[in-house]
Design goal:
Blueprint lengths: L5 E5 L5 E7 L2 H15 L7 E2 L5 E6 L1 H7 L5 H8 L3 H15 E3 L6 E5 L2 H13 L4 E8 L4 E4 L4 E4 L4 E6 L4 H7 L5 H13 L17 H12 L9 H9 L13
Antiparallel strand pairs: 1-2, 2-4, 3-4, 5-6, 6-10, 7-10, 8-9
Helix pairs in contact: 1-8, 3-8
Length: 254
């Protein structure tokens, strides 16, 4: 999630903050729930902002260091790739944030300005047998866009890229990855039903991906030992010990 709509910044006071801002209530509530579980706190309440946006944020030095952009792929990849469940959880969070589904054609794609991150996501999808195309340029740097909130026209500061899930991979994407956000999930389901694909029973029944907070706890537990918040190491170590790690790791995605 943080790799998409999330952000990690330091305030002028020096406080390390991690947060997320989006219009989709389900997405923001899932982000808040994940923060609460990881930090062993009550989930932060979404705060309404202008233009129907919702914002959630929390103070955490470790999460700020770990997840500030650009995401350090080499630092997190062996934990994301610890098991197939971890890969699927990471991909679901990324597509919840950066992905979209065309309501008519069922096209699944995702966007990001970090082409290295998109290429990494693409390799993970291919590892799961989900074929993709791209990355290709979506919006050129310097393209004008109108900001309704400010009532002004700006220019994009970076190139934006996108990747597509190929048509023959959409059913497999639905069964292995899916979406937390109901709107996106229903669009994909309607497309698959129109094609008669959801009437066919799957070859095997797969469990849902790890919850997002479970994946994050797994990463933190292996990156920083034994706890992850200064001044509360014993308490946080107990929290992290509750993480259920998959038994059979998968090989690193090349």
């Amino acid at each position: 999630m943080v790799a998409g709509d999330g952000w990690a910044v330091r305030k002028s006071s020096g406080d390390p903050i991690i947060g997320c801002e989006a219009k989709d209530k389900e997405f923001i509530e899932e982000f808040a729930h994940s923060l609460g579980r990881v930090l062993n706190r009550n989930p932060p309440k979404p705060a309404p902002k202008e233009d129907r946006l919702l914002r959630v944020s929390a103070k955490s030095k470790t999460l700020n260091d770990l997840l500030r952009k650009p995401i350090d792929i080499e630092r997190i990849r062996r934990f994301v790739e610890y098991s197939e469940d971890c890969i699927r959880s990471f991909l679901r969070g990324f597509f919840d944030s950066e992905g979209s589904v065309d309501k008519n054609k069922g096209v699944i794609l995702c966007f990001n300005t970090d082409i290295r991150l998109l290429e990494y996501v693409q390799r993970l999808l291919n590892r799961l047998g989900i074929e993709t195309s791209g990355p290709r340029i979506y919006t050129r740097r310097g393209t004008p866009f109108f900001d309704k909130k400010q009532g002004k026209t700006y220019k994009t500061r970076k190139d934006a890229y996108c990747i597509y899930v190929k048509a023959k991979g959409r059913l497999r994407f639905y069964r292995l990855i899916g979406f937390t956000i109901r709107r996106k999930r229903q669009r994909l389901e309607k497309y698959l039903k129109r094609r008669g694909l959801l009437d066919k029973p799957p070859n095997q029944t797969l469990p849902n991906p790890l919850p997002h907070h479970q994946l994050l706890i797994t990463i933190i537990k292996n990156v920083l030992r034994p706890g992850f918040e200064p001044g509360s190491r014993a308490r946080e170590a107990r929290i992290l010990d509750r993480a259920i790690l998959p038994e059979r790791p998968v090989s690193r995605v090349e």
